[in-house]
Amino acid sequence: MPDADLNTLLTFFKAMANESRLRIVGLLAERERSVQELAELLDLKEPTVSHHLAALKALGLLNVRADGVTRWHSLRLEALTEFSRALFDRKEVAALAAPEQSWEEKVLSGFVGPDGTVTQIPASRRKRWIVLKWLVEAFDEGRDYLEPEVNAVIQRRHWDAATLRRELIGYRMMSRANGVYRRLPSAEWRPADGPA
What architecture does CATH give domain 103-188? Predict the structure, then answer.
């Protein structure tokens, strides 16, 4: 089972909030059964039973084995136990209250690796703006930098210092005059326009 994150638990509860699925889980807890047998026991059509089985299988709750043209389904009790353990573990439940990542945090986690390097320069202007805002924090406001210094700071985060240097200037996060670079106050930055 994946970690008991919010989406996993929501999917689990959605799947289990259906009477037919709960009855299927109960029947499969007794022994393995075919779609035909489940349909007869539940008084449902086979395609309906197959739909419910697919939802349970997506959660990792079922094992399926083929025997000729018949597919036999059985409950993975250990998966149900893992869900139960996650639901009743104080730390797991408390983690659900953690605030969701902001859009900016999601963008940064998508383009900045755990080692603090930019894995890819975003093509989207809005996403690039977020990465550049993060990158410009490496420079002190009010301090003059020569181009080799700017390149060294940027290259600790991404190999393409020339592109990122131009982008920082283009968004007015940094200025360049006579070979000297300076981080500008955020009030002077040109916000990103364009598609996400």
Answer: Orthogonal Bundle (1.10)
